[in-house]
Amino acid sequence: MSRAYESRDDNAARMNRACAITVIKLQPMRRRARNISRRHRVVSLGHARHRHRTLHTECIQCLCRGNGCVLGTAGKNSAERIECVATGCIQTRVVDLFVAETACEIRQNFGWRLGGLGVIGSDLHGPSPFQRRSIGFAAQKSRDHNSREASIVTLLFHHRWDLKKPAVRGPNGVVSSQHYIAAEIGAEVLRAGGNAVDAAIATSFAISVVEPWMSGLGGGGYMQIALADSNRYRTLHFGMRSPAKLDPADYPLAKGDAMSGDLFAWPSVVEDRNIIGYPSIAVPGQVAGIALAHERYATMPWSELLQPAIDLAKQGLPITWNMSLRCLGAAKELKRFPASKAVYLDDHDLPLQPAQGKDLPLSPLGNLPGTLERLADAGPEDFYKGDLAEALVEDLQEGGNKMEAADLAAYEARETDSLPIPYRNIIVHAAPDMTAGPTMARVIELAGDAAPENGAPDTATFVQWADALDKAYQERLDTMGDSAEQDGCTTHLTVADKNGNLVSLTQTLLSVFGSRVTLPRTGLLMNNGIYWFDPRPGGPNSLAPGKKALSNMCPAIVEQNGKPYFAIGASGGRRIMPAVFQVLSMIGVSGMSLDNAAHQPRIDVCGEGRCTVDPALGSEVRDAIAELMPVFDGEHTVYPHLYACPNVALADPATGDFTGFTHVMTPPSATVAA
User: Fold this and answer.
1) Domain made up of 168-316+365-673: CATH architecture
2) Taking the CB of the first residue and of the last residue of the chain, which one, N or C, has fewer CB atoms within 10 A?
C-alpha cells in the first residue's frame, strides 16, 4: 500500500533533498507491545495509525552528510493522522514498509514503539511501473540499556527491474523516435526510397497524432540536417512567436510572491494567463518549418508523407496507460475546454483508461483528420494564408487570443548554417541563435578535456562536467534571460538514411498539453509559447509583441573525419543540453558503443544551483561533486522525469551499417531499422 504526501517545509526540503538515511527517536510506551510478530511483518502508514492509539515521533538527526533531516517536523503525528514532511518535490510516495524482525525484538524487549516513519532520499519520487521498491527498517540497541531512547534506522534497499533497450542496427538506415508507431512509419519511408528528411517529415506528422500532448502542428521546433555528399550542416528555425498585437499589460503579475507552478520560475501571472488557455497561445511555426525542409531537401510528395498521419488520425488516439498518466496531470485544465475534454477525458472528467484484456481502445480526435487531409491537399501555405488559417484565427479570437490573420501570413521559417563546435576528434554542429547550442559550446570550452579517450566517464570526468555545466548555465541565465525550466512536452527524433544523410529534429508545444486548448474547428492542440517569456518587464527575455523566445532545444549532428557521424538530441526542457553533451561525449570522444552510452547513468546540472546525480553512479561520484555544489540523489525513472530523454541515429563508418537507440525510460520509444 502506498500513500502520497506533500511537503510542508519547502525551504528545508530544498536544503536537504539528498537525504538517504534517517534516524527517528521513539517515545517509550508504558506496556509491552501486543500482537507483534517475531517474523517479518508488513506495515503501512495507513494501517499503523489505526493499530496504535498514541503516535509520537521526533526526527532528531539525518545521517546523510551531517545535515538536518528534511523530516524536521515529523512529530505532528496523532491517532487520527500521520503527516510526512518529506520533500519539496512534486510527488512523494511512501511505499510498503517492511519491519525487520530485529525491530520487533527491540520493541518487545526494551518497550519502544514504532510511532511513524517517513521515506526520503532516492525514494522520494516513488515507484514507477518499472520499479519495485521497498524500504527496510532495522533496529539498533542503545549502548546504555537504561536510556529511554532507541533508534530506528531506515535504510533504502533498491529492488528494480533491469531495463534495457538495445541499440538497433540495419543496412539501410534507422529512425529513432519517442513513439514506436512514428518510428515504424519513418522507417517505412526509408524502405520506399525516401531520404532522411522524407522520413523525418513523416515521423514528425505521425508522432503529433499518436503523442499529441508532446508536439504537433500547433507548436514549433528546430531541425538539424547533415548532407553526406557535400558534408554540409544546416539548421532550420521554426520556433513560436508572440502575436504582433500582444499587450504585456494583459498578463499582470499576481499579488504576493507566488511563483509559476509549471515549467519556469517566473512570478505568477493573474489566472495563469500565460500558461493555460487561449491567451497563452503563440504563433505556431511547426508547419512552416516542416514545409521548408520538404521544399529544399525532401524527395517524396508532401501529401504522401502526410498520409500515414491522416490514417492514424482517422483511427483515433490509442488509449494506453502512458496516455492515462499524462492526462491525469492535466485533467483539471483539460476539462475547461470542451474540445480537449472530448479527446482526453471521460464523462466524469477523469482520464480515459485502457481496457483490460481487450483490444486497445481509441479516442476520436475531433476535426484533426480533416485538418490533416486539408493540409495534404492544399499544401502548407493553407495553414498560414488559406482556409486553415482562417479557421485557426476564428477559434483563437473567439477564445480571447489577439492573434490575427496577419500574424500567420507573416510567419516564415528560417534556414541558417549550423554552429560548428570543435571538440577534440569531432566537430559538433548545433543549432545557433536562441537555443541551447551556444551554451553547449561554452561547456565544451570549459570541459573539453574531461572525457576519457576510451570507456565510460570516471569520477573526475563527472566532476569536471558538473562544474562546466554549472558555470555555463549561470552565464546563460545572466545574459540570455532564461530561467528555471523543468520538464516540458518536447519530443525528439533522429534519422539516418542509406546514403549517410542525418536529421535531428526537436519539436514542442512547451508544456505538457501546451495551452490545454484544442481548437474546435481544426482539432489542433495548441502551444502555450507565451509562457516562454518572462512576464516581468525590462529583461532580455521579457514578454513583448512579435518576439521570439529563448529555447532550450539542442538538436545536434556530430562530424568525424569529414563525414556526418551521428545525429543526437533530446526532450526534457533545460535538462536537454546536459544530456546531449554527455551522451555525444561518450560516443564521439570516448568511443563508447551506443548500447553502453544508452544505459550509462548521468548527472544533470541545469542552472538550479545543484547537481542531480543518479545513485547508480555510486557514492564516490556523488561525494566528489558534493564538494563543488549541493547534490540531489535522483533516480532515473519513467515518471517523474529527472533527466532528459535522448535518442541517436548513427552512420557507422567501420561497417557501413546504421545504428540507433532511444531513451530507455520512455515507454513507447523505439529505434526501427529500415
Assistant:
1) 4-Layer Sandwich (3.60)
2) N
Quickly count: other Cβ atoms within 10 Å of residue 516's Cβ.
27
Amino acid found at 624: A
Distance (Å) of CA 382 to CA 221, 388, 405, 613: 20, 6, 12, 48
**Nearest in space to 269 (alpha carbons), one of 537, 1, 553:** 537
DSSP bridge partners of 57: 26
For the chain, give every domain's residue range: 3-160, 168-316+365-673
The predicted pLDDT at position 520 comes to 99
The residues carrying an active-site annotation are 490
Residue 8: per-residue pLDDT: 31
DSSP strand pairing (491-497 vs 173-177): antiparallel
Residue stretches of the chain with pLDDT short of 70 = 1-161, 257-265, 480-489
Round to whole Å and give the CA distance between 614 and 579: 13
Q: Outline where 399-495 has alpha helix (H).
A: 405-410, 437-447, 459-480
Cβ burial 64-90 (10 Å sphere, 16+ → b, else e):
beeeebbbbebbebeeeebbbbbbbbe
Using alpha carbons, select from 158, 151, 161, 186 the residue that is nearest to residue 172: 186
Specify whether the CB–CB gap between 217 and 284 falls below 8 A: yes
CA gap 278, 272 in Å, rounded:
11
| 619 Cα distance to chain centroid | 25
Best CA proximity match to 530, nearest among 223, 247, 329: 247
Q: What angle do CA 88, 476, 574 make, to 5 degrees?
A: 45
pLDDT at 550: 84
d(Cα 219, Cα 509) in Å, to the nearest integer? 5
> How many Å apart are CA 621 and CA 458, to the nearest integer?
8
Grid cell of 230 as nine digits = 557535400
pTM of the model: 0.78
- pLDDT tens per residue, range 245-294: 999 999 999 987 666 655 666 789 999 999 999 999 999 999 999 999 99
Grid cell at residue 333: 485544465
Residues with Cβ within 8 Å of 454's Cβ and at least 6 positions away in sequence, in order, are 590, 591
Provide the Cα torsion 179, 182, 183, 186; round to 10°: -160
